[in-house]
Amino acid sequence: MMSADTRQLNAMQKLPETGDDIWLFGYGSLIYKVDFPYLERRPAKIFNWQRRFWQGSHDHRGTPEAPGRVATLIETPGASCEGMAYRVSPSVFTQLDYREKNGYLRVNTELHFADNQVSTGLTYIATADNSAYLGPASEQDIAKHIARSKGASGENSEYLLQLAQSLRQLKIEDPHVFAIENWLTKLTTQHSTLST
Ligand code: SIN
C-alpha cells in the first residue's frame, strides 16, 4: 500500500527542463481553485477515465480520523472526462505536488482540445493502492459522507458544489457529480427544514 503522502514519489518523476511548458489536466478542485500561475488555460478532455468521488481526503476536506470524499479518475475503457487544462511552467509542480500530496500521483495523459488538437500532459490521479483511497459507494451515500465532512481547506460540500457549478458553467455533463449534488441539496434542505 502506497503512503498517503505522494510528494517523494512525484518528485522522482522527471519533468521537462525549465522553459518547456507542460499541460496540466485538472478535473476536480483544480478546475475551480486556481492558486498557481499558468500561461494559458483551455477546456480539454481525456479518454478512458471517469471522474469519481472515490478518494478520501485526510487534509483538505477531512481529517485522517474522519476523511472527506474528493474526486479522482478511474480507468474506464470507452469513457471520457472533461475538465480544464493549464499550460504551466515545470517549476509549478513543487507547489502542485504539495497540494495534491494526499494520494495523487502525476500520470502522463493525452489531452484533447475542442479544436481536435491533441497534446501530451500530466494529471494527478489517486489510484486504489493509496492509503487514503475509499472506493465506490452509492451517490446518495457519497452525499451523506460529504455533508458531514470538513478539513483544513473547508467544508467538503463546498468542494462538491463548486465543482458542480464550474462544470455547469463549462457546459460539461457529469451525471455522477450532478447526482451527488442533488442528494446533497436534498439533505441540506431537509436539515434546514427540521431545524426551523
Ligand atoms: C484535480 O483537480 O485535477 C485533482 C484532484 C483535486 O485536486 O481535486
Give structural notes.
The strands form two sheets. A five-stranded mixed β-barrel has the order 1-3-2-4-5. It is built from six helices and seven strands. It is of the alpha+beta class and 196 residues long. The N and C termini lie far apart (46 Å). The chain is globular. The protein has a single domain (7-195), classed as Gamma-glutamyl cyclotransferase-like (Hypothetical upf0131 protein ytfp, Roll), CATH 3.10.490.10.
Write the layout of secondary structure elements.
Elements lengths: L6 H5 L10 E5 L2 H4 L7 E18 L10 E21 L4 H7 L5 E9 L4 E8 L13 H9 L2 E2 L2 E2 H14 L5 H21 L1
Parallel strand pairs: 1-5
Antiparallel strand pairs: 1-3, 2-3, 2-4, 4-5, 6-7
Helix pairs in contact: 4-6, 5-6
The structure holds succinic acid.
Question: TL;DR of this structure?
Answer:
The protein has 196 residues and is α+β, with helices and mostly antiparallel strands.
Key terms:
196 residues; alpha+beta; Hypothetical upf0131 protein ytfp; five-stranded mixed barrel; two-stranded antiparallel ribbon; 31% helix; binds succinic acid
